[in-house]
Design goal:
- The chain has 198 residues and is an alpha/beta fold.
- 40% of the residues lie in helices and 18% in strands.
- Strand 2, helix 2 and strand 3 form a beta-alpha-beta unit.
- It is globular.
Length: 198
Amino acid sequence: MMKLIAVTNDRMSIDELIQTLLAIEPYIDAVILREKSKTDTEILKLIQKLKEVNFNVKKMIVHGKPTIANTEQIDKVQLPGGLPLPDLMRQYPALLFGKSVHSLEEAIVAEADGAESVLYGHLFKTNSKPGLQPRGTDDLRRIVSSLTIPVYAIGGIRPSHIERLREVGIAGVAIMSTIFESEHPKNIAKEYYDAIHT
């Protein structure tokens, strides 16, 4: 079964984000906490508050901050391009690292370096990448057939794309704008959930 991963959009206050995450939690398999403009202290506060309201820690993935993941006993980190995976794996042997990639070559290197999964995109036209050409599904198909680790897709994915992406053989989809820019994030998350589970 494909997984549904939410990716936070770094545009909400901590309290807004917590309310949104609690609303969508029943429908998502994980959330990448991608809050690049927040300080480490603010991200720690977010994680601690999520724990206080019993958000499932196993669903949390910290973006680009292995020190925070290690401190808060969150076992997964999503690394953007450029961070040296082998060094971080030696430094944090208890953590699992996913890697964001933009080509087959990057994906092959990520797997060889020890990534637990890769996140490839952006697939389709998306407001979060204005002016950038979407990559489509051809390279995604090549990545899936070339790697043995799970491949996730991100970028402009709608519930109507799920069936087509299922045929490609990806492990799941990661969704940011559609959920976090919606006035009804719970309903949107449920639409993806239903598309995946039908």
